[in-house]
Design brief:
This protein is α/β, with parallel strands linked by helices and 221 residues long. The protein has nine helices and seven strands. It has helices at 19-29, 37-47, 50-59, 67-78, 101-109, 124-132, 172-186, 188-192, 206-220, and strands spanning 8-13, 34-36, 92-95, 116-121, 134-136, 143-145, 197-201. It binds BIS(adenosine)-5'-pentaphosphate (AP5), magnesium ion (MG) and zinc ion (ZN).
């Protein structure tokens, strides 16, 4: 399926809501670049950059990385060619950014506020089950689950054949902290974006979530 879609899209939702999973499905249907700040930070950690080393101290305990670091990272990334539509205007799918009101302000200040915000609503007990059972690909960022989304070959990514890992923040202590950070700092964005926001029932199966999101983005496009 190929349809018109909004240029600047944001996926909003708690840790484990399924942002990464639905994003991987969306890019198969829409011509848009997926920007996951979590994946970008994990790549920076792997590369041993200064930003990566700083971010790790926050991520390992489930805390948010400081706004100035995140804004600089995204401002640089959205300027690249794969984040431009044919007419040169900005086009991207943000996953994990913005996560605070100052981060939302930073997008607005640059004229990059969203055309559509997809809000994945998921019950808290479902979130905890998803995060504790998640396995992630450090190569391409694809998410798997020991029960809900098993790779074809045990422990190996279907897409890039990298060995899957259990993220260091997918343990009970950091999960609780990430949920606290979400409730305190990110949840206010639901109200901030009420004019552009479409709420999707994220408790459904991955294919039903994707179906609902595709309907929502084509209506907004
Ligand atoms: P990040 O990597 O963005 O983590 P997160 O927001 O906690 O979100 P997750 O990636 O854990 O969940 P998801 O919604 O992508 O769910 P997924 O699709 O994987 O950020 C990590 C850290 O980086 C933060 O804690 C922070 O420190 C830092 N950071 C990043 N951005 C930042 C920012 N802007 N500002 C400050 N700090 C920042 O799915 C989860 C599991 O469920 C998987 O196993 C999947 O297979 C399964 N699943 C998904 N959908 C379904 C479904 N419909 N049914 C059944 N199972 C499903
Ligand atoms: Mg993710
Ligand atoms: Zn992979």
């Amino acid at each position: 399926m190929s349809s018109s879609s909004p240029n600047r899209m944001i996926l909003l939702g708690a840790p484990g809501a399924g942002k990464g999973t639905v994003a991987k499905g969306l890019v198969d249907h829409l011509q848009v670049t997926h920007l996951s700040t979590g994946d970008m930070l994990r790549a920076a950690i792997k590369a041993g950059t200064e930003v990566g080393m700083l971010a790790k101290t926050f991520m390992d305990r489930g805390a948010l990385v400081p706004d100035d670091v995140m804004v600089a990272l995204i401002a640089e990334r959205v300027g690249q060619d794969d984040c431009k539509a044919a007419d040169g205007s900005a086009k991207f799918l943000l996953d994990g950014f913005p996560r605070t009101l100052p981060q939302a302000d930073a997008l607005d200040d640059r004229g990059l506020g969203p055309d559509a915000v997809i809000y994945l609503k998921v019950d808290v007990d479902v979130i905890v089950e998803r995060l504790t059972g998640r396995r992630s690909c450090p190569g391409c960022g694809a998410p798997y689950h020991v029960t809900f989304r098993r790779p074809k070959v045990d422990g190996i990514c279907d897409i890039c054949e990298t060995a899957l890992v259990h993220r260091s923040d997918d343990q009970e202590g950091p999960i609780r902290k990430r949920l606290d950070a979400y409730n305190g700092q990110t949840a206010p964005l639901v109200d901030r974006y009420r004019a552009q926001l479409v709420a999707i029932d994220g408790n459904q199966s991955p294919s039903d979530v994707l179906k609902d999101v595709l309907v929502a983005v084509s209506a907004a496009g």
